[in-house]
Amino acid sequence: MMKTLLLTLQPLTAFATPPHGDTLFGQLCWALRHRMGETWLSERLRGYADGDPFLVVSDLLPAGYWPRPALPPAEGADDKEEKKRNWLPRQEWHRPLAEWLTHCDAEKNFHPPGRTNRPHPHNAINRLTGTTGKAGFAPYAVEQSWFPPESRLELWLLHDPQRVDQETILAAVGAVGLTGFGKDASIGLGKFSVESVAESALPRQEGSNAWLTLGFCAPQGLGFDARRSFYHLFTRFGRHGDVAALTGSVFKSPILLARAGAVLTPPAPLPPPPFAGQGLGGNGTISKAIPAAVHQGYAPVAGIRVDWEAMNHG
Fold first, then answer.
1. Once rounded to an integer, what is the mean pLDDT over residues 81-85?
2. pTM
3. How far apart, in Å, are the Cα atoms of 80 and each of 73, 83, 104, 313?
4. DSSP state letter for 192
5. Angle at Cα 91 formed by Cα 87 and Cα 93, nearest 5°?
6. Under a CB-based contact definition with an 8 Å cutoff, are residues 97 and 303 in contact?
7. How far is residue 160's CA from residue 158's CA, in Å, rounded to a whole number?
8. Are 32 and 282 in contact (CB under 8 A)?
9. What residue spans define the domains of the chain?
10. Which of 74, 162, 64, 146 is nearest to 105 (CA)?
């Protein structure tokens, strides 16, 4: 039985990596390995690729908001403008799905304000000479996400208390926040603190007949109704992190994932589970260098009710 926690996080620096759950899961596994040992982690990962995860984490979501469902736009809608309004305020959750779009908003309009993305200049350095090399000045830009002081992020975290207790998993989250999440953590980016932790329950609309994902997931081959499932695809070109990044074989095999906000519909009405998707890897398919490597293809889900007849998909 998975236990569900809702963490409120305070960003302390800019982020150079989009805060997606699959990336965070990987860093949490490394933090747990350092804290508890490789054997301990290997035992927890048993069954991970067979539908039995010990840990599932969402994307880091703007506090008080849900990702907009990836349903087709209404007929005659301005698709370009609609794409910018990709967050639903939590207080509007109770409304029928057909009304959600009128209440969705872009992050730039949040109160308090949400993140802003800005290019940050870098320059290529020859690590052997410590200079820019013979080619001279070689600038490039890395996009960074900046957060105002009052901005907060929320993380939905599901864990099996029989395999990892709350104290241990929260210590791992704190360690990631202290050292930094994602790219350029070595120069101070991606830092955050845990402001609050609460036991919570993922929401379920009355009469739920579909699932809304709160992070990247891998739904392929799981029997969802293809006519009534909608998502935006993302190809993950993953890399090994932590000490594995020093092995000389840092790249993983590409993975096809569905972004947060995917609408997944089971072939028959089922109560929404706490998570959907599947664990990837564990058998050399993700990494030839580290055959046991796995990738989070699970995501926490909320239950939603879609009027398929009204959408002409019935």
1. 77
2. 0.90
3. 10, 6, 14, 23
4. E
5. 70
6. no
7. 7
8. no
9. 3-304
10. 64
